[in-house]
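From the shared-data thread, chain only:
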Amino acid sequence: MEQLDLIDLISERHLQLRQVSEKIWNDQNNIDLSNSEWIIISKIYHKKQMTVPCIAKHVDISRQAAHKFINRLEEKGVVSVKRLENNRNAKLLELTELGKQCYEKNETLKAHLENRIAEEIGEERLKQFKQVLKEDWGL
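Structure, as tokens:
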């Protein structure tokens, strides 16, 4: 880590946090969900309803990959897929009650993980770090 630049440091920490979060979730729950599935769940949770092309665009994956993840989430009972009446090809995605419960439970899990980080690096340093990440970096 000592020799990594800013971009690689952020990438490594992000990967580490996602892996830890995913492992904790999968160890505590009977529905295994991947990082990509969590991103899709989060997008749908905040938008309430989305189409597959919209998911593909917002998650920056191909439509084929989006369909694959959506099918898996539907099989797990987390997402429901409905065909739109005015466009038979378009599919509207919504979280099921189970999907909403998973999302909210995972938010609690992430809050606990954030608390663990605060215990390690200090509450004030974590607060400062979060503020820096929220700032406009002029990019």
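The chain has a mean pLDDT of 90.
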